[in-house]
UniProtKB/TrEMBL annotation:
It holds the Pfam family MFS_1. It comes from Saccharopolyspora halophila. This is MFS transporter. The keyword Iron does not apply. Keywords: Membrane, Transmembrane, Transmembrane helix. It is a multi-pass membrane protein. Residues 1-384 form the Major facilitator superfamily (MFS) profile domain. The chain crosses the membrane at residues 28-46, 58-77, 83-105, 117-137, 143-165, 196-216, 236-255, 267-285, 291-312, 332-353, 359-380. Its main location: membrane.
Length: 384
């Protein structure tokens, strides 16, 4: 998260300050496309793994290696292609760790006990952003510590989970995949599993709103609010503190409440509406104070969303006994928006812009996507 929020932007600016927005869009688009393949592939491979280390542990080890190499390349990248490769490796670590930890929840907890746990797991993203930015703030815009310290934390944390997790080897042998099953790794029939398709589409739209803000926040602060690169880290840390703080206060309580009520859909709808409202406020922010308030509203929406949406998703999986592949497909909806926003952002930023960039158009489009995503939840029939 520290790479997505800060260090990729700093490195792109270091390589070519005039073309930094284009470099970020290019790198994010390639990483997002790669994510489409990696998410279900990692999930399917994990489900089918029969190693002595278990089903999930080998992928935690792979995630640690990808984080380490990606961080080193991000620091040393002499040109844009190496920056893109670093982004791909960091994305590999993020995807692999995310799919694996989510699968562990479905592996080890019954459905009626997942609310608070999935809320805490989902909070890994804002909390990770908070920790990553907090440890780097004292270093201003010095890229080496800004990358190395969060990378080291990620590697140690993933290795620690791999060391302590109960992950027994699956006994049932599986037949070799044929070509039809290989294609099925990337596909769930929406006509056969319409609730799963609706959850996917809802997540895709809601996280498009989040990606519009997170992916271009650093450039927005530099160009619209006139921050210097040295001020950027501290300001982004402040936005993350507000966002993560509100999320932390909201998500666990809402998770327990939804478990008690056994109702998810109204909370998901409300969360998407609140998140979209925060984006609308950001689109009209005349200064840093209003923008920070918008971050708080977005954090409130995320807190409610994180508390309930993943629990809802685990109740509509096509194959509950092998959850990692389908959860990997759902996580595409978390990550594909990065590529989609990167593709459309240059067009939105250029709307009516004369000598500048129209960030308001980008944030408003994100708000519309969030509103639409929340509305789709109402059509799910297999969960309340």
């Amino acid at each position: 998260m520290s790479a997505a929020l800060l260090t990729l932007t700093l490195k792109a600016t270091e390589l070519d300050s005039a073309a930094a927005t284009t470099i970020i869009s290019l790198s994010s688009g390639i990483a997002g496309a790669f994510t489409l393949i990696a998410l279900p592939t990692v999930g399917a491979l994990s489900d089918r793994t029969r190693s002595r280390l278990g089903r999930r542990r080998p992928y935690l080890l792979a995630a640690a290696a990808a984080f380490a190499l990606g961080g080193l390349l991000l620091i040393t990248a002499p040109a844009v292609p190496v920056l893109v490769l670093a982004h791909l490796l960091i994305t590999t670590g993020f995807v692999t760790a995310g799919v694996t930890t989510t699968a562990l929840v479905a592996d080890q907890l019954p459905p009626d006990e997942r609310g608070p746990v999935t809320a805490m797991l989902s909070m890994g993203t804002p909390l990770g952003a908070l920790v990553g930015m907090a440890v780097g703030t004292p270093f201003g815009d010095r890229l080496v510590p800004l990358v190395l310290i969060p990378t080291a934390i990620a590697v140690v944390a993933v290795l620690l989970l791999a060391a302590v997790i109960h992950d027994p080897r699956a006994d049932r042998e599986l037949a070799r995949l044929d070509w039809r099953e290989l294609l099925a790794v990337f596909w769930v029939n929406p006509l056969r599993f319409p609730d799963f398709a609706l959850v996917f589409a809802s997540r895709l739209l809601v996280f498009s709103g989040v990606a519009a803000l997170n992916g271009y926040q650093a450039i927005f602060l530099l160009r619209e609010l006139d921050l210097s690169p040295a001020q950027l880290g501290g300001t982004i840390l402040l936005t993350v503190v507000i966002n993560a703080g509100v999320t932390m206060l909201t998500a666990p309580a809402v998770g327990r409440l939804t478990d008690a009520l056994n109702v998810r859909k109204p909370f998901v709808l409300a969360a998407a509406m609140i998140l979209g409202a925060g984006l609308l406020i950001a689109s009209a922010a005349p200064g840093l104070g209003v923008y920070l308030f918008a971050c708080g509203v977005v954090g409130l929406g995320q807190g409610v969303y994180f508390a309930v949406e993943l629990v809802l998703a685990t109740r509509v999986l096509p194959d509950p006994d092998n959850p990692a592949k389908d959860l990997g497909l759902l996580k595409i909806a978390d990550n594909l928006p990065v590529a989609l926003v990167a593709a459309v952002a240059p067009v939105l930023l250029a709307i009516g812009a004369s000598g500048g960039e129209n960030f308001a158009a980008l944030f408003i489009a994100g708000a519309i996507a969030a509103f639409a995503g929340g509305s789709l939840i109402l059509f799910i029939r297999g969960a309340r």
